[in-house]
Amino acid sequence: MEPYRAARRKAEQHLADSYAVLSGDAKAPMEIGALAALYRHAETIPGMCDHLKLRALCEIARDCPRGDLVEIGSWWGKSAFILLRLAQNYGIGRLYYVEPWSDAHLVKGGAASVVDLVSTQYCAEEAFQVFLLNLRPYAHGDLSYLRCPSAEGAARYKAGNPITTSEFGSARPVGAIALLHIDGNHSYACAKEDIASWTPAMAPGGWIIVDDYVWPFGDGPKRAGDEYLEANADRIAMSFVTGSALFIKLRA
Asked: Is 17 exposed, middle or buried (0-12, 13-18, 19+ CB in 10 A)?
């Protein structure tokens, strides 16, 4: 029973704490049973989404405009599951996951060499099957994936054609991104390319999350995130760091 009790305690603590960054138009938080279920089921999926980041995702979902949600880098699907359930609860929009699930795209290089060493122990094709296993019970027609590198995925997304998969059917992107979660290859060049490829499609008032902005194995996401903050200061309503992630809200 302890994992279920722990999920209930986390939900109670979550609802007891206010989140000062939200606008006055933010939707009501999830009711305690739904929130406890989110915490419990997220714990059953392997992944690196820390508790502080999970809590922040729950809060900013209340403040999201309508539009598409895009996650760059999904692997086993932990944060994918969290975003899916939040999108469904708040009626934000359909989710699109962009991940090649390819052994050739695992290497991050440079300071992350220890990560490369560990990554070679995993099979990308098997990770894709685990992703499907974790997400299929919750899909309900609300998600799609693009099994390709990020830049290719951005081009396909912007083309506006229906995105079709055998597991989740077919849907045409809205073309305006309400929430963008960047968690792909953590090299500086790739993190910068992800931001450049996807942020032009952001909806007014949308949220950008740069994961592993605080990362012990390199500073690629931090450098790319800082450059975006500096270059787009006039477009940004707020930004903050919690857990390992940088959160950016664009002006409406």
From this structure: exposed
Question: What is the CATH number for 24?
Answer: 3.40.50.150
CB neighbourhood size of 114 (10 A): 12
Buried b (16+ CB within 10 A) or exposed e, 152-168: ebbebbeeeeebeeeeb
Q: What is the pLDDT of residues 10-68, one digit of tens each?
A: 999 999 986 766 767 889 999 999 999 999 999 999 988 888 999 999 999 999 999 99
Tokens of 127: 């990770």
Phi-psi region of 77 (alpha: psi -120 to 50; beta: other; left: phi over 0): left
201: containing domain: 2-250
Q: Write out the two tokens for 2.
A: 């302890």
